[in-house]
Specification:
elongated; alpha+beta; 18% strand; 23% helix
Length: 248
């Protein structure tokens, strides 16, 4: 009896097997090693921007205590057309009369004017200038030779025919014209509405129908024989001019 009980107990232990039954559903996603073979990495793609971003375009990251010279805005007369055409947007605001220094407060008011006029529209505003010039002002009734003065505000040097702001988006041309007109009224000087594709300007000369090479070429010498003299206007004598007019 004991042998039969022991044999039955041994056979019962042999029948017990430890098996692992998965409790979760099988995954249909292939492992990462197999997917990496089929997915090709993009070529010549920059995953970050190397351009330093500014928190505020009206106040640069420059020490205010560092004294700066007043300077003068550049006048492009040697063949440079930098900043005279629309690059990123569809329409632009260009200064046409004279180069000057515009304060950050004036540019901020112009920016707010454009945003107020284009409220509710889908657009993007580009700023082409940076207020990186510190303006230092001395107090009233200050004698000469007492120093440069303390910091007052930031400003930007804007050259003649330079574009200050650009707009791109789902906008009508007349709406943008009106927005730039209101912004130009807030800024000093005379301003012009320009479109993308208009010819650039060298100094005050518009390159329309003339190339930059022709503009750099020296003036042609005019031969004296090719010039036709202009005859003098007919003159009347003093007696004829003062003669009384007789009636019929």
């Amino acid at each position: 009896m004991r042998s039969n009980a022991s044999s039955c107990l041994a056979s019962a232990f042999r029948s017990l097997r430890i098996t692992h039954t998965p409790t979760s559903r099988p995954s249909i996603i292939p492992p990462a090693s197999t997917t990496a073979r089929h997915i090709l990495s993009p070529q010549n793609v920059r995953f970050f921007s190397a351009t330093a971003t500014r928190a505020n375009w009206l106040e640069p990251r420059i020490d205010r205590k560092k004294k700066m010279m007043k300077g003068r805005p550049r006048v492009a007369t040697g063949g440079s057309v930098k900043g005279t055409t629309v690059v990123w947007g569809d329409y632009g605001l260009r200064m046409t009369d004279h180069h000057r220094r515009i304060s950050a407060q004036q540019l901020k008011i112009a920016e707010d004017t454009i945003k107020t006029r284009l409220r509710g529209q889908k657009y993007r505003l580009y700023k082409r200038v940076c207020c990186n010039v510190g303006v230092f002002v001395s107090g009233n009734e200050m004698r000469m030779g007492k120093g440069k003065g303390s910091f007052d505000h930031w400003a930007a040097r804007v050259a003649v025919n330079q574009i200050v702001m650009e707009v791109r988006g789902m906008l009508h041309e007349q709406v943008v014209r009106d927005a730039f007109r209101l912004a130009g009224n807030k800024l000093p000087g005379q301003w012009q509405f320009v479109k993308k594709g208009e010819p650039p300007i060298v100094g005050i000369t518009r390159l329309k129908g003339i190339t930059l090479e022709e503009l750099k070429r020296p003036r042609r010498k005019v031969v004296a024989e090719s010039i036709t003299p202009v005859p003098p206007p007919p003159t009347t004598s003093a007696s004829e001019s003062h003669a009384p007019m007789n009636g019929p």
